[in-house]
Design brief:
globular, six-stranded antiparallel β-sheet, 5 helices, Beta-Lactamase
Length: 172
């Protein structure tokens, strides 16, 4: 996993890990409740619901959404935030996440080679792949913050555990 030194960032720029864990716990409870009424395997309504609930609970998110992994490029799916890039190559944060099939925590997007600027307010980002049982990347979930170093292993852990619910209806 790509992750830079976090020691340069003040504590005021990031949520406390225990606060994040509590917020994610509340969000996961609501996501489970909301998704229990949706049919498994129908991904777009599930994605939209996850976005709405995460927006409600996660104050450090300024933009979040999904990019579908298509053959030649990634194509925007459901998202919340400013209007964004509709199609992106496999060179930026989301594309790298899809190619490597692993989550990426980017403390400072300006330091990431090939970063694609879709929202000029974004200073940090996390991207998490959604991989089906055959090992294919279906999409990538990404969220950004207007603060440096806003994402850490707490975000990664909760988001990685959440993404499979989009495909099979169960939290990991």
């Amino acid at each position: 996993m790509y992750m830079e030194d976090k020691s340069k960032v003040s504590k005021q720029e990031a949520l406390d890990s225990s606060d994040k864990s509590k917020l994610y716990g509340l969000a996961l409870d609501e996501i489970n409740m909301q998704l229990s009424t949706l049919e498994k395997g129908i991904i777009v309504p599930r994605m939209s619901t996850v976005l709405a609930v995460l927006r409600k609970f996660m104050p450090h998110y300024i933009w979040q959404g999904f990019y579908f992994a298509e053959e030649k490029e990634m194509v925007i799916g459901p998202y919340q935030g400013e209007v964004t890039c509709p199609n992106i190559p496999y060179t930026g944060v989301c594309g790298t996440c899809a190619r490597k099939k692993e989550s990426l925590i980017i403390p400072n997007v300006g330091d990431f080679p090939g970063h694609i600027v879709c929202d000029k307010r974004a200073k940090s980002e996390i991207a998490v792949p959604i991989v089906d049982k055959a090992g294919r990347v279906i999409a990538v979930y990404a969220t950004s913050s207007d603060r440096l170093n806003a994402f850490d292993d707490v975000d990664r852990k909760y988001l990685e555990n959440l993404m499979p619910i989009l495909l099979d209806g169960e939290l990991q």
